[in-house]
């Protein structure tokens, strides 16, 4: 085996999918690309990594709500474009032709082009690691959307796309103890 610089070890475990996080700061909407997300348990608890370097972070701190929008591979250039500019300088919804749709439980908008959305409230900021802990309050999926493959960032400017879904639910159910 070849050695890998320890500074690149994260590329072996980089989670996915890449998401778009929308915010509303009481005046206007914004969207940022986030490539580090984490499911915290079997409920609707999630974490993202962001901080003051992202313009949307101030809105997250102020309103304590957002939407996690899940784009598909056909949106990769939009996703990368959103992540390489600041909402402080431009209206990303207008620049990237994003369709705003009203969320049900938060003021941040849904993005009409995305496959799915999770409306969230912020429950904690873990400053030491730049982690924002979110609690999902509503979820939506576009069942009519043809493209369903999501994008996963490797962390070095390259991406992996989901492929075939393999179903092993029955096999896993047979291995669980009674009552689980």
Automatic annotation (TrEMBL):
Example of a GO MF term: FMN binding
Residues of the Flavin reductase like domain: 12-153
Cofactor: FMN
Keywords: Flavoprotein
InterPro entries xref list: Flavin_Rdtase-like_dom, Flavoredoxin, Split_barrel_FMN-bd
Keyword check for Phosphoprotein: no
Matches recorded under SUPFAM superfamilies: FMN-binding split barrel
TM region positions: none
KW Flavoprotein (keyword) present: yes
Domain of life according to the entry: Bacteria
Gene3D superfamilies recorded: Electron Transport, Fmn-binding Protein, Chain A
Membership in a protein family: Belongs to the flavoredoxin family.
Protein name: Flavin reductase family protein
